[in-house]
Amino acid sequence: MANNTEAETFDDGAIEKQTIDHAETASVFEEDAAEAHRVLRKIDLRLIPIVLMLYTLTFLDRVNIGNAAVWNLETDLHMKGYDYNIVVLVFYIPYILLEIPSNMIINRVQPRYWIGFLALGWGLSVTFAGFSKSMGGLGCLFLIGSWYRREELIVRLAWFMVSNDVAGVLSGLLGAGLGSLNGTGGYSGWCWIFWVEGAMTCVAAIVALFFLPSFPEESTFLTPEEKAWYLRRLKRDDNNREGEQQKMELRGVLRSLRDWKVLTSGVLYLSVCVTAYSLSVFQPAVLTSFGWSSLKSNLLTAPVRAVSGIISVLVALWSDKVRRRGVFCLAGFLISIMGMLFVMLFTNGNLRYMGFYFASFGIYICQPLVIGWCVNQVIGYTKRGTVTAFAVSCGQIGGIISALVFPSKNAPQYVPGISTCIGFQVLGILAVLNMWWWCRWENKQRDAGKRDHLRSLSAEEQEKLGELHPDFRYML
To answer: What sections of the protein cross the membrane (predicted)?
Structure first.
């Protein structure tokens, strides 16, 4: 307390006293694990439920076309041949083109306004799609990655990605329930699916407009003491984190796109999404090809996604605890390949349905891991924002591929589509092995002191090294 009294003798004593008090409070947080846990829990409760709700509903809207297809969508809109596949495909094109620009915008606009605006626009689009009379009528990862240290990130991303599984469960149940309204008011079941699920997304978007938090540097729900401690904590994990949020500039994005780790993130997420979107959009149709009714096919997608969601979170907790990523990605791809082979090669409906379990929880183990692993390997807002945007953009190419390789004429085994999924998962395995081997080699070089010559650079130049700094170690 003597230091505080002495500080008060200066003209700017109040400011200096506040700084000293914050430093003392920060040291208390650093020494008290219970206090650190309390602040992290406060952040989790403010951030994760909102983004989980948003992503659940928007993903539900994305995959509900699979449920709508078994409730007279193609018949009412006079669709034939590849028409349904083209409708699924069209969605992904703007997603691919606008993902990086979107991350540049969210870096300049309050996330709650931008994300809320996008969710509201999407919800309205889905709602009005229910009025279609012909075929022609028919950003969150970056924010989460900025709030958590590397060893805390995967489990949060898993909770975010479990939205896919929650949406999968809800999609099956809502598809069955809303589809059963078929004929109500003179409208087919697919119309009710679009109307109700789209309206739910609009409501969630309005909630986000008011309650979604900003980036850590601009947060207002933490006390000044908590915020000061938390920013210091993040900086120790990210040597390139400044006091103020860096803005994503086009020059920095283009420079980041030359980094092999960023490019690898695209290959990895593409490898995941070909299978993930195939399972999400076409699973009801595949189940119907077993000879099962539309209602049964919708309902039986739900338990598959529930199991995969639980397993993905448990694996994420394990991954964060042991600070390893590659081995879990490798296991996920191999398990999913085994499941897809079951679906493609067996003719018994029950065995093929079991294959969907293995295929789903294997690929959904990989989904948060590959994004989090690639974010773990880079430093700075620009490169982190580029990694998440580029990976997600490449993932949507997987959506286009899945839309093209599952035409109904290939039922009931869907050999071309499932073979394509397996081929991309093999590509994912190769990308995992490449990332793991190179990062392990580079860590050994740094442990041996072969990058220590970089310490002779000025402090300012060392700040710009990012993950090239000799103190940085890549996640394996």
So the answer is: 82-101, 153-180, 192-212, 260-279, 299-319, 326-347, 353-375, 387-408, 414-437
- Contact yes or no for 54/205 (Cβ under 8 A): yes
Look at residue 223 and tell me if it is in a domain: no
> Rounded distance, CA 9 to CA 444, Å?
52
Asked if residue 1 is part of any domain, the answer here is no
Contacts of 273 (CB under 8 A, 6+ apart): 394, 395, 396, 397, 398, 399, 402
Residues 392 and 102: beta-carbon distance below 8 Å: no
| Domain span including residue 306 | 15-213+228-242+250-468
Residue 405 is classified by DSSP as S
| 261 belongs to a structural domain | yes
Number of domains making up the chain: 1
Specify the length of the chain in residues. 476
Neighbours of 137 (CB within 10 A): 12
Among residues 166, 145, 189, the alpha carbon closest in space to that of 389 is found at 145
Residue 78, burial from CB neighbour count under 10 angstroms (0-12, 13-18, 19+) = exposed
Residue 262 belongs to domain with CATH number: 1.20.1250.20
CA distances from 127 to 77, 176, 196, 303, 437 (A): 16, 18, 7, 27, 47
Contact 261, 435 (CB under 8 A): yes
Cβ count near 275 (within 10 Å): 31
Residues 6+ apart with CB under 8 A from 106: 114, 115, 139, 142, 143
Tokens linked to 239: 């040597």
Q: How many CB atoms lie within 10 A of CB 211?
A: 14
Largest CA distance in the chain: 84
Q: What is the pLDDT along the chain (476 residues), one digit of tens a residue?
A: 334 433 333 344 443 444 434 444 444 445 567 777 888 888 888 888 888 888 788 777 666 676 677 677 777 777 777 777 777 777 777 777 878 888 788 878 888 888 888 888 878 877 877 776 655 554 576 678 777 777 777 788 887 777 766 776 777 677 777 877 877 888 888 788 888 888 888 888 898 888 888 888 887 888 888 888 888 887 776 654 444 456 777 888 888 899 999 999 999 999 999 999 888 778 888 888 888 887 787 778 888 888 888 898 899 889 988 989 999 999 999 999 999 999 999 989 889 999 999 999 999 999 989 988 998 899 887 888 889 889 988 988 988 898 788 888 888 899 999 999 999 999 999 999 999 999 999 999 999 999 999 989 888 888 788 888 899 999 99
CA–CA gap between residue 372 and residue 17 (Å, rounded): 39
Q: Find out whether 284 and 69 touch, Cβ atoms under 8 Å.
A: yes
Domain annotation covers residue 191: yes
Classify residue 84 by its DSSP letter: H
The one-letter amino acid at 237: D
